[in-house]
Design a protein that fits this description.
The chain has 334 residues and is of the alpha+beta class. It is built from ten helices and 16 strands. Bound molecules: zinc ion.
Length: 334
């Protein structure tokens, strides 16, 4: 069976050789001409698509921010954090991703978290640009589900800069009532220490315009929000922290929000917490539970602060020694 292909193969070889010879002087000229090309120093647009059953999922990057995690992680020591980062070859301060996820169910376009807009420094706030890059317009978003009301998750509800406006004018905003009750309370803000008031101000500036426009619809605990997407209470990191479970045709994706901040540290030891946890004990409990469930279930998780696109699976290490992160295999969707 191989014989008929031989003449073709030799023809290809001859023609490639001919092309190579013909191009040789041109190639060296091109090489010389581009040697002084300017360095670009920017990334490609930050979106990544995958299919989940009949749903199309687009991870959208809001950017990255360098964080001093040795000062922020708790229930560990800076030396232990240092050692874990060295093992994972992660530079310090840790360049931390801020990811959001767009789910097209076929009938609804649902955005889960919105990035920071201008509330968390100049390296974040790219969500709108990276939402438009794969062809969406903010007016098309039907629903927005928030994991919790920290600035890097709700900031993008409003456009940044002077004259800030609602960024998603046709969307209904869904948040667990425990989070809106906590973060939209003036009394709670007044009672907070000076360095904690900014969290409330960011949450109020982002969500109150939706309240005023009659677009906020809270929920309590586990609720089906649209067919195929439901909330699940994982309260602890904040009073109403929720994850979102997306299911289509037997495939499952769980969007974790802030159940994970530093993969290199917390998969090894899920008991590691962070200063931003409202209720440290409850947050640690939810993390331990979520990692074990993901390892057992084998489903995909999408994580706000794992290296973009933050999509992968969790595997339990042998001997009960924590977990490993298995990023999804890159797909061109062809
Ligand atoms: Zn966060």
């Amino acid at each position: 069976m191989s014989r008929p292909f031989q003449p073709l193969q030799s023809a290809i070889r001859v023609s490639l050789l001919g092309t190579a010879l013909a191009l040789a002087p041109v190639t060296s000229m091109v090489g010389a001409a581009f040697a002084a090309a300017p360095m670009v120093k920017t990334q490609a647009p930050g979106f990544y698509r995958m299919m989940l059953g009949d749903f199309e999922v687009t991870a959208i990057s809001d950017g990255t921010v360098k964080l001093p995690m040795k000062d922020l992680l708790t229930n560990t020591t800076p030396a232990k954090v240092d050692a874990a980062l060295k093992r994972a070859a992660i530079a310090y301060p840790i360049e931390t991703a801020v990811n959001a996820y767009l789910i097209n169910t076929g009938s609804k376009l649902v955005l889960i978290d919105t990035g920071a807009a201008g509330l968390f420094g100049p390296t974040l706030g790219n969500l709108l640009t990276n939402l438009k890059a794969p062809g969406y317009q903010p007016e098309q978003i039907d629903e927005i589900y928030i994991t919790h009301m920290h600035a890097d998750h709700v900031g993008g509800l409003m456009t940044s800069g002077a004259g800030a406006a609602i960024a998603f004018p046709n969307a209904t905003l869904r948040i667990d009532k425990a989070d809106t009750d906590y973060w939209l309370s003036e009394a709670n803000m007044n009672a907070a220490p000076a360095d904690g008031k900014g969290f409330f101000q960011g949450a109020m500036a982002s969500v109150n315009p939706y309240v005023a426009a009659g677009k906020l619809k809270t929920f309590e605990g586990g609720v089906e929000l649209v067919p195929g997407i439901r909330s699940q209470a994982t309260h602890g990191h904040t009073a109403g922290h929720s994850v979102y479970i997306v299911e289509s045709k037997g495939e499952k994706l769980v969007l974790w929000g802030d159940l994970m901040h530093v993969a290199a540290v917390q998969f090894e030891n899920p008991a590691v917490t962070i200063k931003f946890d409202s209720d440290v004990k409850a947050a640690a409990k939810e993390r331990v539970k979520a990692y074990a469930d993901a390892a057992k279930g084998g489903y995909i998780v999408g994580v706000s602060h794992i290296s973009f696109p933050g999509l992968g699976r969790v595997r339990a290490n042998a001997g009960g020694k924590g977990y490993s992160w298995i990023p999804v295999n890159y797909s061109s969707l062809k």
